[in-house]
Amino acid sequence: MKLRINSNSLRYRLTQTDVANLFKEGCIKEKVNFGNNELVYVLQGIVDKEISADFKNNIVTMYIPKIMIDELVNTNKVGFENNNGELKLLIEKDFTCLDNVAEDQSDNYPNPLAENNYAKRQ
Questions:
Q1: How far apart, in whole angstroms, are the C-alpha atoms of residue 24 and residue 95?
Q2: N or C: which end of the chain has fewer CB within 10 A?
Q3: Does residue 117 have a pLDDT over 60?
Q4: Distances from the Cα of 28 to the Cαs of 3, 21, 99, in angstroms?
Q5: What CATH architecture is 2-121?
Q6: What is the pLDDT of residue 93?
Q7: CA–CA dist 122, 110 (Å, integer)
Q8: Are 30 and 1 in contact (CB under 8 A)?
């Protein structure tokens, strides 16, 4: 799971394994170590209708309704978004990049633009 923060926007990008584990376990988490501190980010399934988030004790938690988790697993739905006050929230599948990158993308979702020969036209 990748965490992207930009201004007042919070985005979680999920690999195929992330989505499978979220479906199976109902929760996934990662952490970033900063010496004596760590930032933990969590995606937690809930029984609700909207995506929401909070930040407490160095833990960023985004909550996703279980029905949306089911859609990520069983449909071609790419992601979901919502506003939590002024904070924009986005949860999406992580697609392979069309450019050559050094990052391991073996667990990312196939990029639909690659199927349209997008990379060849560039």
A1: 21
A2: C
A3: no
A4: 12, 7, 28
A5: 2-Layer Sandwich (3.30)
A6: 87
A7: 18
A8: yes
- Domain boundaries of the chain, sorted by first residue: 2-121
Q: Which two structure tokens, joined as six digits, stand for 8?
A: 């007042």
Region 14-27: mean pLDDT is: 95
User: Is residue 40 within 8 Å of residue 20, measured between CB atoms?
Assistant: no
User: What distance in Å separates the CA atoms of residue 106 and residue 33, rounded to the nearest whole number?
Assistant: 25
Chain segment 75-107, per-residue pLDDT in tens:
989 899 999 899 999 999 886 665 666 666 666
Place of tokens 């988030």: 53
Give the residue among 62, 49, 56 at the shortest CA–CA distance from 4: 62
What is the pTM for the complete model shown? 0.83
Please report, in angstroms and rounded to a whole number, the separation of the first and last CA atoms in the chain: 29
The CA angle 110-47-59, to the nearest 5 degrees, is 70
CB 89 within 8 A of CB 53: yes
